[in-house]
Specification:
This protein has 454 residues and is an alpha+beta fold. It has seven helices and 14 strands.
Length: 454
């Protein structure tokens, strides 16, 4: 009994020292958090830059108070809680600005008495003390709020957490008669296990203070709900489950490259606002607009053909050629014999094929059209385009579709440098099929534009 009282005195003394240290550390954290405003470097992270631009791993150490009671109340097998120290470590992976997965390991002791019960005892037990060999769990951690929400990098974060774990413990009780029952090393079905093992659910909340770019001060409270009724060594109520709580203070250390900010401290809304207000970004947008305008003007200059002979001014060595004159690739008039031969109809260009119910050019048609465009630019003359359709749909619709296909080819040739007057586009609907419309293979061949040069 003397030893038990001595333990209580030591625990209360240690608690006072721990609370004092926590208070001093908290004050220091607040001071450093305010002082860092003048020295914090601006983050280079972007809103849609991905997790790779941040530090996402952190390691923590903590110590605090273990109790068989919870802040939210509930039933207990003992009337009074002793104060005992616990300690633990954590490893966290930040998956987003507001969510992380955290692994935790805790050790310590939990104890309580029935000193306020009648005769200082109930259920035949005066007190208990449970050694926690280990309590290991994985939790989801959510950042729910921050005091300075509009800053690019926060210095105070509130969070909640919940998860699932396994606790290994050995309870010891002192009966009303003074008999001590210790379950250590005699646990399990065969009474040869060191600890009793049960699943538990941790639910907690806390607040973090950013001390520096690498270190954060952490204050938290976690309630552990155990899937069993023997944590305190007493089967008092068949339908109840035991639980205990852990109030702690600790330090978290951010791991990774110093050049990257820690993801949990970066606010995406503030980051986006900051980017939109960034004058350098606006300057880049304006510069991009100017470059696009210059490119568009250069393209128009390249296409300019003042005398309408089909050769752009920059390549035209014989400016002012009369309209209708057959010219070569340099824009100079062809000799009479060559001009006469250029007026002969030239066939041999492959048909331009189209998908069902579409007038969009296929990429495999580009080489054919480039060849036709090059021939006309170099040798002059005009092109006739005849659009066709397969027999699906009404005749009126297919006539419109065939015209659209012919005009798609004309648009490509004009954009390639030909004068619009050099290209004639006509639609013939379902007329002049080159294959049977009774089969899909035949219909594919009939969806076409035929081209010829005069």
């Amino acid at each position: 009994m003397f030893n038990l009282k001595k333990k209580k005195i030591m625990n209360y003394s240690t608690l006072k020292k721990g609370l004092a240290v926590s208070f001093v550390a908290l004050m220091g954290a607040s001071t450093l958090a305010n002082a860092q405003d003048s020295t914090m470097t601006t983050s280079s992270a972007k809103v849609f830059g991905g997790r790779g631009q941040y530090r996402t791993w952190s390691f923590g150490v903590n110590g605090g108070v273990l109790s068989p009671f919870l802040a939210i109340g509930g039933s207990n097998d003992f009337t009074n809680a002793d104060v005992n120290l616990g300690y633990g470590i954590s490893l966290k992976k930040q998956l987003g600005h507001a969510f992380a997965l955290e692994g935790n390991i805790l050790r310590g002791k939990v104890s309580g008495t029935n000193k306020d019960a009648a005769n200082g005892s109930q259920f035949g037990v005066r007190s208990f003390e449970t050694e926690i060999g280990y309590a290991a769990d994985i939790r989801g951690v959510v950042n729910v709020a921050t005091v300075d929400f509009l800053r690019r990098e926060n210095s105070v974060n509130f969070y909640v957490s919940a998860g699932y774990g396994l606790v290994a413990y050995s309870p010891s009780t002192i009966a009303t008669s003074g008999t001590v029952t210790d379950w250590k090393d005699v646990s399990g079905d065969t009474r040869d296990k060191k600890y009793v093992k049960e699943a538990y659910i941790p639910v907690g909340a806390g607040v973090k203070f950013k001390v520096s770019d690498r270190v954060a001060f952490n204050l938290g409270y976690t309630m552990q709900f155990i899937d069993g009724d023997n944590f305190d060594g007493v089967y008092a109520k068949a339908t109840t489950k035991d639980k205990y709580s852990y109030g702690y203070a600790g330090l978290d250390f951010s791991l990774g490259s110093k050049a990257k900010p820690a993801l949990e401290w970066v606010n995406p809304l503030a980051l986006m606002y900051d980017e939109l207000k960034d004058p350098s970004l606006r300057q880049e947008v304006e510069a991009l607009k100017n470059r696009v305008s210059n490119v568009e003007k250069s393209i128009e200059d390249l296409k300019k053909d003042t005398d309408g002979d089909g050769v752009a001014d920059q390549f035209d060595k014989c400016a002012g050629t009369p309209a209708g004159t057959a010219v070569d690739g340099s824009g100079c008039p062809l000799p009479k014999m060559q001009a006469d031969s250029a007026m002969v109809t030239v066939t041999g260009f492959e048909p331009i094929q189209f998908e069902f119910n579409s007038s969009v050019l296929k990429t495999e048609s580009y080489p054919i059209l480039d060849k036709l465009s090059s021939t006309l630019r170099e040798n002059g003359g005009k092109a006739t385009l005849k659009g066709y359709a397969s027999s699906e749909g009404t005749a009126a619709y297919n006539m419109k579709l065939s015209k659209d296909r012919a005009n798609s080819v004309k648009t490509y040739l004009v954009n390639a440098g030909l004068n619009s007057s050099q290209v004639t586009a006509k639609g013939y609907g379902e007329a002049n099929p080159i294959a049977s419309n009774d089969t899909e293979e035949g219909r594919i061949q009939n969806r076409r534009v035929e081209s010829s040069r005069l």
